[in-house]
């Protein structure tokens, strides 16, 4: 390769020196910042069981929505991505629009939770949360807003308990787990999941984090921190960065049995769309879902590719199916400026049209 | 000019070293600074800090190496040549991947080596200082320690298998490195016309990241990678499983609870939790049914009472009949029954 670079050596050395200077100066700004808070929206615990807490989120005004919406998050990471900070909060935005929002914090499983199955999570925990909300509001059915794996859970739950779900919103939700661009799925196909879970018990959060970092190893483990140097002189941006770092690595372990079932039956065998999935003793048939569905996916999602989400419309019996393509990634759909402007208003409008 | 460059580099290296040292010192103060990066597992505090800062240091080193690599006097008369920059990219990918290993992830070589040493010290294994020969294959087992010998052979074979698969995995990552560099050259070639070339070291670095991630994604979605990734996970799990079995054996001998016993207890506790919830639900449903029945009964009584009053208003006064007595008696009995149920 003989192509010369267009910048001169002096410029290169200047850049090098600038980098080190910023780094040295940034040390002062980092000092004393400590741990950044998140999940600051006022809330009230209305139900709890084992490690789980059901929160009722409180907005400034009384909700105008007649039917409450329950956010069902994934078991990986924490639900607080939806309420990261005041100006980057799906929850706050939904409350501001007049929605009545509940969310499930699954908690941090430990050895005592190693035997929790998907049946325990869906027909146990989730079902009892839905019942608790229905009872509080004197309703027979509520809205579900499922996120990522929580979206898959919401689909399964709706298929098993259709009478308890009025409207269903899915966000960055995998439905077809075997699309060619799904890296996570690709990697687990040759894994002996039984040996994996029998050996590990609960799956440690650090291992999950490692897998996610390995999806884009250089971008997520190096370039991100190199770019951080450019914001070391901006305390606000730096706090935002550290808050996100906290969320990324604040991960619960995965209950072993639930992990085993999810990897085998969803990722490896793709049973959700094949129609032969069973959770507990109940069959899960997406064709049973006739509720209105809003399916939101992110066009640049590297964790749940759009092709994994879009097939949903083909497998449900709902005649009121809407897709919303968000221009961004798996995380940007919650925290980006565009997300604040587009996502919550779209959800609110869609729900309002169906009450 | 060359002397000036050498002086600059010396000064710069000293400055860079001071800078890293200062970062390390600052971050060693507990709670003094915001934390970022992969939370490392285990190891000395300095090691944890070094790993948190590894990405920044890698970039700083690359800047230094790339800029210093082309310090020939001719550089100052013309644009910088490409090759030294590419050479500086030679190792970072594998380093980065190694840097995000944790004790729970696949790069656990140091972990099992520590474990082996601990077991050897505890006298549980006959592998002390002799891993090389033990990795050569199985040997006949006999005598009172026959079962233990078999366990050791199985573990040795599993470790051997893991090392082989790990080498295949590293070879794939190495391919990513070379393919990434080729892609970078391609990208630079495509943008050879003025205005489309990277105009700074950072822009070149970003282009390198793009090229490497493209090459990695292609590799990561290949059949080879899927097979090796799965084999690596499985090989590691076999080693861990055998480690656990040997640890259990030791625990049993020491009278300590074992993982299997704790698992067994956990499984029973989980079943009890399920049974408890099912019972609560049944009781709740039974209560609800009872309340519904009582409410229906009360409503019926109210209707009857209202009907009775209405009849009384329009009916002329007549002598009390036997039938009326019977009805009144039934009402009293029913009300008493409802009241009793409420208690």
Automatic annotation (TrEMBL), chain A:
Keywords: Acyltransferase, PHB biosynthesis, Transferase. It comes from the Bacteria. Gene3D superfamilies: alpha/beta hydrolase. Pathway: Biopolymer metabolism; poly-(R)-3-hydroxybutanoate biosynthesis. Residues 88-333 form the AB hydrolase-1 domain. Pfam families: Abhydrolase_1. The keyword Acyltransferase applies. This is Poly(3-hydroxyalkanoate) polymerase subunit PhaC. It comes from Dyella acidiphila.
Automatic annotation (TrEMBL), chain B:
Keywords: PHB biosynthesis. Pathway: Biopolymer metabolism; poly-(R)-3-hydroxybutanoate biosynthesis. Pfam families: PHA_synth_III_E (PF09712). InterPro entries: PHA_synth_III_E (IPR010123). Residues 306-343 are annotated as: Disordered. Residues 319-328 have a biased composition (Basic and acidic residues). This is Poly(3-hydroxyalkanoate) polymerase subunit PhaE. It comes from Dyella acidiphila.
